[in-house]
Amino acid sequence: MTKPKDLLENTPGKKVLLLANEAIARGVLEAGVRLVALYPGTPSSEIGNNLTFMAPHIPNFYFEFSTNEKVALEVSGAAAVAGVRSMMICKGPGLNVAADPFFSLAYIGVRAGMVIVVADDPSMWSSQNENDSRYYALMGNMPMVEPADPAEAKDMVHDAFELSEKLELPVLLRTTTRVNHTRAPVVLDIIKERPKTVEFEKDPFRLVPIPSVARKMHPKLLAKIEKAKEIAENSPLNFFEGNGDLGILTSGVAYNYVVEALDHLELETEIYKLGITHPVPEKSMVEFLKRHKRVVVVEELEPFLETHARRLAQLNEVSVEILGKEQGYFSRVGEYSPRIVIESLGKISNRNTRINWKDIDKQSEQIPEMPPRPPLLCAGCPHRASYFAIRTATRGKAIYPSDIGCYTLSISPPLETADILFDMGSSITTACGLAQVTGQDIVASVGDSTFFASALPGLVNAVYNKHPVSLVVLDNRTTAMTGHQPHPGTGITGMREEVPPLDIEEVSKGLGIKYVKTITTFESMAGLVKEVREMVKWTRENKSPAVLVSRDPCALLTAADRRKSGEYPPKYYVDTEVCNSCKRCLNRLSCPAMYQDTETEQAVIDETLCNFCGTCVSVCPQGAIKQEEK
Amino acid sequence: MVGITNNTDVINIAIAGVGGQGVLTLAEILAKAALLDSHNVRVGEIHGMAQRGGHVVCTVRIGEKAKGPIVDSGTAHLVIGFEPVETLREIHLIRKDGIAIMNSHVQYPVAVSMGKAEYPSEDEIRNAIRKFTNSIHEFDAMKVAKEAGSSRSMNIVMFGAIIGSKITPIRKESAIQVVREAFPSRFEEINVSAFEAGFAMITQFMKE
Prior knowledge:
Number of domains of chain B: 1
Number of domains of chain A: 4
Oligomer: heterodimer
Distance between the termini of chain A: 36 Å
Helix content of chain A: 40-55%
Strand order of the largest sheet of chain A: 3-2-4-5-7-6-12
Largest sheet of chain A: 7 strands, mixed
């Protein structure tokens, strides 16, 4: 398995198998980046997961898991303004959080290279929307590069820093899930050194964009983008490939599908592959359009390059047919695949595909109905116990605003405790809005990492404006969903240093919450139910917000600890003499470690999956679930 | 050898299972072994929310012409299923001449435990798979893994089966070398015997 230490190897020329996210982490090392700040977000998470373990071994390198993306962009932006290479990394929605500093940073510019990695998520494998971050480059006037695979991802880290330094502007490196999570051979390069410190040179009339300053900066920024256009004209990152009547304009991961589709269809075309997608090389693109009667644009999500092509054709009076999303040849929704490109190119060029997909699709429809297997809370997950208690205490009748993390999975039956969600931190704020207009009990829930990332301003709002809402903080001691990164409540930094953790209870009290309690999730189900009930009652009577911290570590962390130590608690089992097959445990908990014996209809605990939380014991009315004696 | 009739520039493999079964790890070691033998390779992985006990599919593509990681319907030379229903869910990926290798050990989805969905019978699953390929090999890889020393080595049993199928150009020695190097040394013995057991199992099947 690739480990962070493998990414530190000083072996230029060595070919290794890397996930694009690992390749970007390696690129940070090679490019002499001095500071990286980020808030984890899939599909970009593995970049930080590797950097945090590499960081203590890299001289003059600082890495942090910032409290959120806005913070991360400000921390890293300032470092680049001071004069060292820096990077900020986020998922698509993370750039929305960081949008405010993003636009200012383009105006102010940087003295050393800065790269902002943004990972979009077509098909929304793990995101709440499919937003196309390329428009940030357009709107913010920030150059952008887009790799198609892991090798390009690392190379483009180098290219992006060079471009950034030429222009004194941050550069976006935009990926999509299918690039981030592709593993492929990558060749290692030499490792640049990094400066220990730089001296901050004051220049307030450049670095403080008060209106009079900003008015001068805007034309300067536009001039920089003009310069970037010239660079894009001659950059090897934008290249032509092949010959043919048909032209294909493409970028990013779609380029791979185009190459595979052309091979499949045995079609000769000229491909224009753009590595720099903002600003587009207008002169070269016009020449490309002029060379062809028909140009197909293949890009995932929005018609970004397509619109550029149409604009340039109109502006330069090029008579070319541009085929893309506008005529429905390609979708604006979801990831592409070779098949999607083969089928559309086949239609456009009147070629048959070699595979009869219609037959396969028809065949697939005849498969017997399969039970769904969506992602769900793990066996032993403390959230399951917390949500069971929340539902029981409120008899399922309260409104349950949710937030972003593993716990959003409580949307599914039987827990059904995710009623509304906008974005990071919206649990507490949507609760405020709902409380004012419904008069119903509101029990919101938020994870520990999200609490620090985005819930604090919402809590202040709830206190000051006296919103009667209950908030359960599901404190599982980590940022679980994205791969167990530390956060300010854990006591570990991105540099793997031990520091005093921030205490959620103390923080809540400090913000003025009058009712704050902490409980150990797995200590007693009856206790947990009672605490939730009391909090809701207090909120109702005092017309003020209350916080209950439900604390127990993520089941994956405890399971890993047990595997390491080899010490396991006694097993849980269903006593077949006592179990009356009422199925309450199965129906109320939906624990993946439990199933029904097909013959006896009794519940069974799968010992290879059980994580020893014992929640099922308290749910069984017969007392049939027991733990073995030591 | 059963199966593959067309000459092909790329070998496509799809690995389907349940999050937590070791699907990702198998995809990575398979690709590592391919690279060790100097083959071009691509792996498509699923991370994040998709991993939490849900259905997972990873792809491995070996050969010069592999550019992207995606394996489309009807293009997989091998479909590896860690669980019967999950095999069925991804069987549309297989070529007509492709081979399916399936672990017969059932892991019930919670929808079944809750009585909200039914788990298809062994025959239903087998017959449905047969509509896509005649070449299906199934065995209880969980049992084999436990016999090798740990239920967690089930993915290595499947690795042995993949290499034993001789569909990939990967040498057995390279595969074993990767198995030895990829994990902490305390698991080495278990993993190597899991690999050999899977390898032997499929070799036996393919003789029959």
